[in-house]
Amino acid sequence: MKKNKEFKGLWYIPSDPKNKIGGTLIITPDKIVLELFGCYNTESESIINTILENKVSTVEAIHGNLIDSKKITLFNCRESLNINTSNSVHLSTYECLYVLEGLHLNSTKDNFFNQISLHTPILSQWKHPAIIERSFYFCEHSNKVKKVEVSADQASNWKKSFDITEGYQLTLSGNGQFNGNFEHTEFKFNQDTTLSIICKEKKTFSDLLEKVFLVCKFVTLATQTPVLITELFLYNDVMQQNSDPIKLYYVSKKESTQKVDSTNFLFTYDDISDIFPEVILKWFKESDRLAPIRNHLIASIQQKGYFSSLDFLTIIQSLEGYHHRFIGTDKKLKERINDLINNFNIIDLVRNSNIKVDRVVKTRNYYSHFYERKGNELAGRELLEETNKLRVLLTCCVLSLIGFNSSKINEILNKRNSIKSFL
User: Fold this and answer.
1) In this structure, are residues 103 and 253 in contact, taking their beta carbons and an 8 Å threshold?
2) What is the pLDDT of residue 242?
3) pTM for this structure?
């Protein structure tokens, strides 16, 4: 979500629909707050005791009826109270984790939805929608553009579906739209790629959201860029065809992701289209076993504007954990790193990186166990360079586990600027 939103209406707890209180729901990317002109517990003494004892009251769900008759549901609501000494009206505030716009739902455990769709700018860069075509015509004796032709054939809209786990499918779809006014003075073309998760049986929205987040981690790995979800929509297969989908908001700490150069992606969809069905299926099947290593790798590729020894430790711990979990031999760190280097020696960037294994091990021991410095530990620029080499090695480990063969890994790493710039 890019812009803040406000909803004004009457709000009540599902078990007490007659006790409606006026207030405003404010949604920002990092906070969802409901401000009420009153509180559900109307006993003044109880309110005062709650504040003085610093008690935290939580409500699973709050329903809202907006002034435009739209329905809203808030989930996981945490209350704080404010006494107004000048009159008998007390203010209450609820911080919430989720908002459903367009529906009243009583519990996060209700199996109600069979599809979730997301929009994020980076998805259209990773898998280009390719609906709109442009042609440029230049003047005969100069480089000035004489004419531009733009065509958008909605018949070219496409959809690709893939099994990701039992009962679930992932769908990528490319869509293009054209809008113009009657005076022919203004035209607007846009296109995007949408990602959807569809399930055979109805699920909770949190079940579907979990699958979406896992796909976003895959896209983050592919693009080397954190994914910002700008819109989320939920569907129920009994909803009327022309009815609006349910919009889902949630608390996200991520900042807006600007458009990035796709030549710096690790890989695009087109790079792996021949193996994508097998890769995305394995990404889900190996999710639990891969989780800590995957999360460390993704955390290490996010741009922070600075580098520290913790970045080095994150990578080295992930390599050690990968070897222990998937190779399983009881070896020392030096032997584990050498094993992984030998396993991926066919990869050009690994074979030519000349990782300083002895110094890497001593540096890990120094930063992990606070040993006395002996003078040959990595620091500064050298530490950054070795960390980047180790990150390439960890990338090879993760890609191999989810179905990339050595030839494909080599092709991807040699092609992309983001990895080559590490070395």
Assistant:
1) no
2) 58
3) 0.85
